[in-house]
Automatic annotation (TrEMBL):
Organism the protein comes from: Streptomyces fumanus
Domain Mandelate racemase/muconate lactonizing enzyme C-terminal positions: 203-299
Xref: SUPFAM superfamilies: Enolase C-terminal domain-like (SSF51604), Enolase N-terminal domain-like (SSF54826)
Keyword Ribonucleoprotein (UniProt): no
Cofactor entry: Mg(2+)
Entry keyword Lyase: yes
Family matches, as Pfam families: MR_MLE_C (PF13378), MR_MLE_N (PF02746)
Annotated catalysed reactions: L-fuconate = 2-dehydro-3-deoxy-L-fuconate + H2O
EC number from the UniProt entry: 4.2.1.68
Listed name of the protein: L-fuconate dehydratase
Keywords tagged on the record: Lyase, Magnesium, Metal-binding
């Protein structure tokens, strides 16, 4: 029986960094040398034999300490709070965090501070799901529509999506939900893989990994593009030859291009049948995305992993600027804001293919996509979750891929908890890996 008097006693933060730049994993035209990192937060409680809550913001190395500091700055809103009340209404804390009259100035609702809000809010949802004994996707799918509407942040969205319409969408989504949940548990959720396509990989490695992906059951792969057109033509030709005509090939420019350049470049790669062009220009340029979409059709335009908040998604959808919504579990203000983004996508009839990879993004975002399938959109048509095959072994409940599909998590929580030994090894700069790596003596003593 959960302790109704339990309180949050501490908000512990950790600067976790992995040296992925040394293998060029994660490399793209805008980010050639990322060290995948997590500003990791653990909500401690005084509940007897109770669970902690785990969350994080994803970064790519330098500056992760800034993200950790932003999470720390929010702690006074959390410590001392009733665990039962927090889990019954995560939205109350979300509103306190986004409404802090001084910290809000640093956004508002964007950037490092807003990502910190997301990390803390996601940790609350992890705690709530653990206390309920359910994986997060199931906690959300089982929730009453009225409660979910209260949790979703619909502020500034009512010109596109009213609370009443959100309630209608969620009530409609409950029809057949039990059957979809059973199918999800039996067959999983479609995935696509970016693992073959990092820009730093040579053609032989790209070809080998692309063939392996198809053999493993993936029906879509993604390549990073945007640094050099001649290289991109060569690499796309090699990828298409490796995967054949029946597998989708998406391309991702990671914000590299001007609008006109994006149109020219995408058209130059059209012979290889790209399914979508991802982040062709600045993530803030709504009208630029709309212009690109008109010009490159039938190639789809996908974006959203760097969209600062739900209002940007609203405008992308209102402007007809996007064919594929790529929400991110750790970029915006956590589950509460991502509920609003999922509802917006459902209202506009645009499929959601979440951004993943990084450190733990696959682990988190699978829950959001699976809830969307079971209890909102009701379909996996034109939908897939990104998958990148690294760093999963550092999590207590890592993703499982079978035949190109995500297996539905069954362990309680948000799948966000890192292994204690990984925290001890990769905390920067004092963890055992980094202490040895940064030691100018190489561990030698005089």
């Amino acid at each position: 029986m959960p302790d109704t008097d339990a309180r949050i006693t501490a908000v512990d933060t950790y600067d976790i960094r992995f040296p992925t730049s040394r293998e060029l994993a994660g490399s793209d035209a805008m980010n050639p040398d990322p060290d995948y990192s997590a500003a990791y937060v653990v909500l401690r409680t005084d509940e007897a034999q109770g669970a902690d809550g785990h969350g994080f913001a994803f970064t790519i190395g330098r500056g992760n300490e800034v993200q950790v500091a932003a999470i720390h700055a929010l702690g006074h809103h959390v410590v001392g709070r009733s665990v039962a009340a927090l889990c019954a209404d995560p939205g109350a804390l979300y509103r306190d965090l986004t409404g802090d009259s001084q910290l809000r100035w640093l956004g508002p609702e964007k950037g490092v501070l807003h990502m910190a809000v997301g990390a803390v809010v996601n940790a609350v949802w992890d705690l709530a799901a653990r206390r309920a004994g359910k994986p997060l996707w199931k906690l959300l799918a089982d929730a009453e529509p009225e409660w979910l509407v209260r949790q979703a942040d619909l502020r500034y969205l009512t010109d596109a999506l009213t609370p009443q319409r959100a309630l209608e969408l969620l009530r409609r989504g409950r029809d057949g939900a039990d059957g979809r949940a059973a199918r999800l548990l039996a067959t999983g959720f479609p995935a696509y893989t970016t693992s073959p396509g990092w820009l730093g990989y040579d053609d032989d490695k790209l070809t080998r990994l692309a063939r392996e992906a198809v053999a493993d059951g993936f029906t879509q792969i993604k390549l990073k593009v945007g640094a050099d057109l001649a290289d991109d033509i060569r690499r796309c030709r090699a990828a298409r030859a490796a995967i054949g005509p029946g597998v989708k090939l998406a391309i991702d420019a990671n914000q590299r291009w001007e609008v006109a350049e994006a149109v020219r470049w995408t058209r130059a790669l059209a012979e290889f049948g790209p399914y979508w062009i991802e982040e062709p220009t600045s993530p803030d340029d709504i009208l630029g995305h709309a212009a690109i979409r008109r010009a490159v059709a039938p190639v789809k335009v996908a974006t959203g992993e760097h969209a600062a908040n739900r209002v940007v998604f609203k405008q992308l959808l209102q402007a007809g600027a996007v064919d594929v919504v790529q929400l991110d579990a750790a970029r915006v203000g956590g589950v509460n804001e991502n509920l609003a983004i999922l509802l917006l996508a459902a209202e506009f009839g645009v499929p959601v293919c979440p951004h993943a990879g990084g450190v733990g993004l696959c682990e988190l975002v699978q829950h959001l996509a699976m809830f969307d399938y079971v209890a909102l959109a009701g379909t996996t048509e034109d939908r897939a979750i990104e998958y990148v095959d690294h760093l999963h072994d550092h999590f207590l409940d890592p993703v499982v891929i079978r035949a190109g599909r995500y297996a539905a998590p069954t362990a309680p929580g948000f799948s966000a908890a890192l292994r204690p030994e990984s925290v001890a090894r990769y905390t920067y700069p004092g963890g055992t890996f980094w202490a040895a790596d940064l030691d100018p003596t190489g561990g030698r003593t005089a």
